[in-house]
# Entry
Amino acid sequence: MDNKGLNDELPGDSSASESEYQHALEVDRFCMVVFDQQNAHRRKASLVPSDDHPQQRTSCYVHQLLEEQRQSSQVVPSSCVRNQKLDKGMNDGDETHSRLLTKLQLSEMASEMRNLSKTLTNIRLKLRVKAVFLLVKAHDETLIGFSRELVDWLLSKDRDTPYLVYVENTLENNRIFDAKGLVSDEPSREGRLKYWTNELCAKRPQTFDFAITLGGDGTLLYASWLFQRTVPPVLSFAMGSLGFLTKFDYGGFRETLTTAFRDGITVSLRLRFEGTVMRSQHESRGKNQDLIEELVGAEAENDFTHKPDGKYEILNDIVVDRGPNPTMSALEIFGDGEHFTTVQADGVCVATPTGSTAYNLAAGGSLCHPDNPVILLTAICAHTLSFRPIILPDTVVLRVGVPYDARTSSWASFDGRERVELHPGDYVTISASRFPFANVMQSRSASDDWINSISRTLNWNSRERQKGFKEWQK
# Structure
């Protein structure tokens, strides 16, 4: 993908000024995150090991913007570096996690990401696509035939570009997909049908210039799960049940993809969360220990109370609940170094704006437009009449922990996957991620798109219109 299309006029907007175009061309300036050496401290319990992934160059313009922002954000305050070196549980690497940043740094990162997102939603990006990633709804045999039809069209010699098409490696020997038959139809297809694995998506996301999904919202969430770092622009064809996020009709896939590759696309950057499981390092966990004191109280010089045990990038929500335990959970909620409250409930749901229509909605949380930079915190069946759902800014670092004196452990899930048990003393840290989800939108505005989605799928505010009065005739 390149930036040639940044000079294209917006659909239906022929009055855009030259200065606005120049502003779009200079979009990479938004990617600077300036760190202030003041207020650079994070508690040692917050420190997370870095992932050491080799960086790959990419022709995708969205990839370039996000990677430039990530690179510019790797200047770590000296005090944080000292803390990392002191913590024996830390590993050296090249990545600074968002939860390691100070309040000021998180605010700056969030501001730059919002500016970038706003710019991308108001321009059309022309594509220079070479490698196409295809993801099909899992365990649905009926969609294999559709995926074969789509791959056949992409590999056809009638296309202007000889695309490399990546499909899941499980399709290589699938009888219905018939990979050998696809390739043998035309000599030009030899070597252009390739197969992706979970490891390839996680470690080398720059391999793909464009992603296509066939399925529902769950398929799109799986795409987010596969790409735990930079996500290629994802265009989703609706072949599921509800379809909050899948905007395009598969019946017109030829016209849709031809238009996208020829005229460009509009991209919406969806906020994702970075969730990290933190394990208590106390060998004997007893009632004489206090999680609140460990996370909020005075911090000793060499007191490393917790160590990280897994990090996840999520698009919908992080849920901490009672799991298989018959009794309700006891959870401590922290935000930015303060103890918010103690919750006794079946659990809590911490949702992104995108996830506001999922478990958050079922638990009584608010609907939230995906452009809002917020964190939604909702209790699940709270054992109190006074706990109301709250909405927090995306600059807050939340911690949801199990107190040492809790009767049972709790369980955390990340976008409905990777179920993890939290023992007393463990907690999960949740913060805004610096790797958003690049979702391809239809040409109409994002607000119209979202309102149409909740009206179509949830019948939002749908009722019979009140009849007017008909005056009596005398």
Q: What stands out?
A: The mean pLDDT is 80.
